[in-house]
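Supplementary Methods S3. Complex input for the zinc ion-bound model.
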Amino acid sequence: MATLSMSMSIHEEPMDFSNHKLIRIHPRSTEHVKQLNRLEKEFQMDYWRPALNDLRPVLTIVDPYKEQYFLRALNNSKIFHEIVSNNFQRIVDKERAEMEMASRQLNAKGENYDYENSYHNYEEILDQMKYLANNHPEKAKYQPVGKTYEGREIPALVIGSGEKVIILENGIHSREWITIAFGQWVANKLITDVSLEPLLENYRFIVVPVLNVDGFIYTHTTNRLWRKTRSPSPGTNCFGADPNRNWDSHFCEQGASNNPCSETYCGSSAFSEIESKNMANLINQYKGSIAAYFAVHSYSQLWMYPFGYSYSLPPNAQQLKTLSQAAVSAIKKSHGLSFTEGSIANTIYLASGSSIDWAYDSADVKVAFAVELRDKGLYGFQLPANQIKPAVEETWAGVKAVIDQLS
Ligand SMILES: [Zn+2]
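Predicted complex, serialized as structure tokens:
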């Protein structure tokens, strides 16, 4: 019965979510959390965020084949849930229509590019990043990270001339669109905000707006909820590995799966995914000068530091905590939202093979964060475009607070 529909994609037809419900589950006790984790396995669900003891809501799509059984199981366990939408396709269509309308508007490129009210597709992002570099050669250089599995360019901008390097990694998980909006916005902000010019004399920012380009394209063409890369796994019908479980740091230990059909599949070997490998090469290129690394994800409103592979804390945990607290308080001041800080394993879950753990242990990046942007589970990955502006502003406030403390 249950298939791993989210991970499978033998057909390249767009996923039709018309009869799929989007539901929001509200665990009220640790017993509910336990039940939900059991049901996730039993029904092979893709929870957008795992059920955790913080008792935050869990969003998930329920396909028509599982619906009756899964909802009955929730009811039997007395776990409250609400139907957000009876037709998830309608939400996807609405998001796309808004995006297309925005990009059709006259002169929506260059100077008139809309960073704050609209999501963009890969071609628009690529053109815009090149435009920024071409129009501000004194501040920025277009320097791609390398190619993806399907041969596309991974865009990046190097902004500023300082000795110390700050890396902003966005969109390693392709469905986390708000992070990709942040990447574009922050590149533009750094280049065009004259008040930041002194910062660019001290630092060199490397902004990667979308690392998992193939997956991102797939979220536009085929499945809005695609998270992984798009490399095939021989012997299976499943595609992609989780590029944030694929780094050579405690590879495929706890919090990663060796099942190619899992959303957290670690890949056939460490750095089997060229996207992770190319990003690691970029980090190595600046090894010794990296002042801070930010891996930007969504969603959950968390500001986290190493480690993901262990509950133990890194030697400079106190420093990382202080910096995280500064970030969280700046975010609160920005638009009033509360973020939680702590180490990855202690704040959400064990996750081995992640970029910041590798940067910390292997590339000597002692100030590294994994940030989960808004929200806490109301819209999840489908954060409405009218929240892009506050989301990117508060994220920048957090990043800036860290940098101010470093200087
Ligand atoms: Zn993510």
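The longest helix spans residues 317-335. The domain at 1-104 is CATH 3.30.70.340 (Alpha-Beta Plaits).
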